[in-house]
Amino acid sequence: MYLSDFQYDLPDDRIARYPLSDRDQSRLLVFGDDNSIEHSRFDRLPGFIPPGSMLVFNDTKVIKARLFGKKDSGGKVEVLVERILDDRHVLAAIRASHAPKPDSRLLLADAIPATVIAREEEFYTLRFEHALPVAELLQCYGQLPLPPYINRPATDSDEARYQTVYARNAGAVAAPTAGLHFDQNMMDHLRLLGVTIAYVTLHVGAGTFQPVRVAHIADHSMHSESYHIPQATVDAIQKAQFAGGRILAVGTTSLRALEACASAHQGHLAAGHGETRIFITPGYRFQVVERLLTNFHLPRSTLLMLVSAFAGIDNIRDAYQHAIKEQYRFFSYGDVMLIEREL
């Protein structure tokens, strides 16, 4: 397939650059397995989730991964931490007028000396030359890394709203945005209705925003992300499947963790940690997830390819055009879709 198969035109005013005042007031587009489209609101989601269903959430927490600083030469740099490797080292993307060389020095946030250790493709390994561990330094001096299309500095409001209410495992540089719609009342209400809730952890990397630069999508090299699936989640999914319940992934990151694990274990889930470069495109055979709750994704992105694989490429084209016509809000702070898998 071609990258151009996943192009669509989005008016700039459809990009949601700020969250709504209440998490659960987003619009909800329900795409049925009969290709029907229903317009609703997120606070009515329980009406579309039958008892016995299971929802799987990604409980990753966004870290303050963006740091500004300068090189020894005085040139400005912007560092976006992709992954904390240990208490002293990080994997990071660096923006600068001239790429820093190995063994060169940076001063970040006027407080953190750092040494460039190596570069591999678009990421650098940095060593923070400071007594405090990396996680503490980022919390003290880092800034919340809002997606590039939001195109504004993070505010105090973003500190809360660009995290899910159930975030607990720090490590992501982007939020699992489908989960941003849930407040605690919604979580409690779903449990009261007999819906099972379970968690995985997938630390969303900056690669989620990297553009696809190849004409043939089969030539794209997917970024790596780490995930963890607890034994309790494996047990709950198996129990739900045995009872005939349907598995609903809250967000593409939850889906990626589950499908990556199943792909690595001959179609079965296994508890534990893993790394995945899974690239889900039309033609992929889903092994775990049957329903998907997800925001609207960027044109020509790997996430748009994933939802096209889940619902059918023509169906997603139609649904997105419908959403644009109906003035839905797009991307991280935007509205949401509930999708039945194309069987």
How would you state the average pLDDT, rounded? 95
Fraction of helical residues: 10-25%
Span of the ends, CA to CA: 20 Å
What are the segments in which pLDDT stays under 50 over at least 5 consecutive residues? none
Computed over alpha carbons, the radius of gyration is 20 Å
Count, helices:
7
Q: Which CATH class of the largest domain?
A: Alpha Beta
N to C succession of SSEs: EEEEEEEEEEHHEHEEHEHEEHHE
| Name given to the CATH homologous superfamily of the largest domain | QueA-like
Beta-strand portion reads: 25-35%
Globular, elongated, flat, extended or rod-shaped: what is the shape?
globular
Spatial sequence of strands, sheet with the most strands: 2-1-17-16-14-3-12-13-15
Q: Count structural domains.
A: 2
Largest sheet: 9 strands, mixed
Structural class from helices and strands? Answer: alpha/beta
What is the architecture of the largest domain at the second tier of CATH? 3-Layer(aba) Sandwich
